[in-house]
Every structure is written in structure tokens, then in C-alpha cells.
Amino acid sequence: QVCAQLCRRPCYCPWVPPRCPRGSPLVLDGCGCCKICARRLGEPCDFLHVCDQSQGLVCDYSSASAGTGATCNFEDDEEGCEVNGRVYRDGEVFQPSCKIQCQCLDGGFNCIPLCQEDVRLPTPDCPYPRRVEIPGKCCPEWICEAQDQHLLRDASSAVSPRLRYPCQEWGTEWSACSATCGLGFATRVSNQNRFCRLETQRRLCMARPCPALPAAFPAVS
């Protein structure tokens, strides 16, 4: 009876299919007539506006009795997270890029860097350090300009013998995270590098995930 009320035959569809946001594929509506954008995790749904089944989503009517309407959710009610239009299951580990690795946890996600986040300070043998992308490598590396390389070669004979051997490690404790929630940076000063130079190092940190903002969805037609 519901199908007979909502579905019209023959089908009358727009000439141009709708343009869908990233991560929302074109699918047939609940009547099997017109192509529409599949609804994503947490978006409103009904008989006509179907959820993205390729992501394991179904239209959850459990909250409809409270007057909030049905929303797309995982079939087994397992929490997940959506990143760049793709839905990951709770506990799933993924890499948005080769420089970072993340894990979906309780509807949010935590990430750790895979590249060293150190900061190289200018030194007499390298007054103008520069971090560059190396072809074929994911993580950038520090280099000195060509003119600095000449200074380094000219001074190589005068380098103190102590620099040829590991020095006694020294460093400060990591600072508090720069952000109270979400990703931030922690810094320290350390000589733990192959040249035994004091340098400021930094790394990503997360005190706690930021609370999710309430999403605004368009009214279901």
C-alpha cells in the first residue's frame, strides 16, 4: 500500500541526474525509478531516499517514534566514522595518506604521524636548512643549500673529534599538547640526532577527541 502511494508508473525522472557529494554514489530510489544520491551515515532517510548499502547502511527507524525521523545507520548498530566520504568501522585502522595512520574509535578517530616531525634549527655548518619533498619518498627530508655544502666541506677538516662519536644524550620533557582537543603539537629541545646538535623537535598529540558538532541536514522531501 505504501509503495502504491509513493511510487508512480511510469517513472518521471529529471533529465540530468543529481550531482552527489563525495562519497555518496548514485543509486535507484526506493521505487526503483529514478537515480538519487545515496544517503550517508547519520543522514535522514525514508522509503524513497535510501541509504548507501555499499557502506553497510540501512534506514534506522528506531528513533522515528521520538519525532526525530529515521536516519542511516549500520545494520548491526555498530558505531563508525566517516573520513573523506568513506565510512570505517569501529576499531578499523586506515591511512588517509602515507604520512599518517588513523584508527576509528567510538564514532571519532585518532591519528599518529608516520613521518618525523622534527624542526632543524640553523647551525654554522647549515645556516639555511630547508625541508624538501624527495621523489619516490613519502616523508620530506632536511637539506642544506648548495652554498652551505661548500662551507661544510671546507670545515670538515676542522670538525671536532667529539662529533665523530655518540654524545651523552640530553633533552627536555615533551611539552603539553598545544590543543585541548583534537590534533595539536608537543615540542621539546634535544640533542638526540646524528650530529649531537641541540634542536627543537615536535610531534603530533591529541589530549582528547573534539566533541562532534550537530550536523545540519536538509529536510526530506
Provide structural commentary.
- This protein is 6% helix and 29% strand.
- With 221 residues, it is mainly beta.
- The chain has four domains: 1-76, Omega-AgatoxinV, CATH 4.10.40; 81-113; 118-145, no CATH class; 170-208, Thrombospondin type-1 (TSP1) repeat (TSP-1 type 1 repeat).
- The strands form six sheets. The chain has a three-stranded antiparallel beta sheet, with no helix packed on it.
- The chain is elongated and about 80 Å long.
- Residues 148-165 have low confidence and may be disordered.
List the helices and strands and how they pair.
Elements: H1 2-6, E1 26-28, E2 35-37, E3 57-60, E4 71-74, E5 80-83, E6 86-89, E7 93-97, E8 100-105, E9 108-113, E10 129-132, E11 141-144, H2 146-154, E12 183-190, E13 199-206
Antiparallel strand pairs: 1-2, 3-4, 5-6, 7-8, 8-9, 10-11, 12-13
Q: Give the overall pLDDT as a whole number.
A: 76
Biggest sheet layout: 3 strands, antiparallel
- With strands numbered from the N-terminus, the spatial order across the biggest sheet is 7-8-9
With helices defined by DSSP (H or I, 4 residues minimum), what is the helix count? 2
Q: Main traits of this protein?
A:
secreted; VWF_dom; CCN family member 5; Insulin_GF-bd_Cys-rich_CS; single chain; 221 residues; 29% strand; Omega-AgatoxinV
Gist?
The protein is mainly β and 221 residues long.
